[in-house]
Design goal:
By secondary structure, the protein is of the alpha/beta class. It is built from five helices and nine strands. The N and C termini lie far apart (43 Å). This is Putative transcription factor protein.
Length: 225
């Protein structure tokens, strides 16, 4: 019987304050409990290697093997003390890697710091727009990692057509990098009673809770939930 296909390796970096790291590890409040469930599923599909401080992250990045992706779970990487890790993560993405900013990343930093990080470190014009709860529809015109052709839509497999969650929305995102689009202005809450909720607001094509954009030869993803 042939050997099973080896699992890909994924790095998870949680470089924030000790209190946040402890909560993330224990799953003792709702957000972190959700993360633990996600991590459990992820470990069935991949080998997940975790870094909880600067040196652990540098050690992982210094290994010979290249991970399939790096997940950044909090805003600790923005801290100037972790700039050496941040630089290597950006280099990894530009050389073809995939980096995802999510879990507590959008929620434990302020808008000014986050906007500056996206501009100066990643060279992207993304800015914080709002923290809100509303319906978003999948953007079928968006792009994902093309495995076969530039128009490959495999990235949409398994994603819900309608996404409703309280998120930190970002703005100034290229329309084809917005995986979901709000059905109304994220500054306001709206009630929908018909199929209009399935249509993205035409004027809001640069605002999203979920982004995935090319960076060099690789990609940067953002999940604002």
């Amino acid at each position: 019987m042939p050997d099973p296909k080896p699992k890909p390796t994924i790095y998870q970096f949680s470089l924030g304050d000790e209190v946040g790291r402890s909560l993330l590890r224990s799953g003792s409040i709702f957000t972190f409990n959700v993360y633990q469930r996600i991590l459990l599923k992820l470990r069935k599909l991949a080998i997940v290697q975790e870094a909880w401080n600067n040196q652990e992250a540098l050690d992982l990045l210094g290994q010979d093997k290249t991970p399939r992706a790096i997940i950044i779970t909090d805003a600790g990487i923005i801290d100037p003390d972790n700039s050496n890790v941040s630089e290597k993560v950006v280099e990894y993405a530009r050389n073809g890697g995939t980096v995802i900013l999510g879990v507590e990343f959008p929620g434990n930093t302020n808008a000014t710091v986050l906007d500056e990080y996206m501009t100066k470190v990643w060279g992207l014009p993304w800015t914080t727009h709002s923290y809100n709860y509303l319906d978003c529809v999948i953007n079928t015109a968006a792009s994902g990692p093309a495995k076969n052709t530039p128009n490959d839509r495999q990235w949409m497999n398994g994603l819900q057509a309608l996404y409703t969650e309280k998120c930190v929305y970002i703005d100034n995102v290229a329309p084809d990098a917005c995986w979901y689009l709000p059905t109304a202005d994220p500054y306001y809450l709206h009630e929908y009673e018909n199929e209009e909720k399935w249509r993205a607001a035409a004027a809001k094509m640069t605002q999203t809770p979920v982004a995935f954009a090319p960076v060099g030869k690789g990609y940067l993803g953002y999940v604002g939930e």
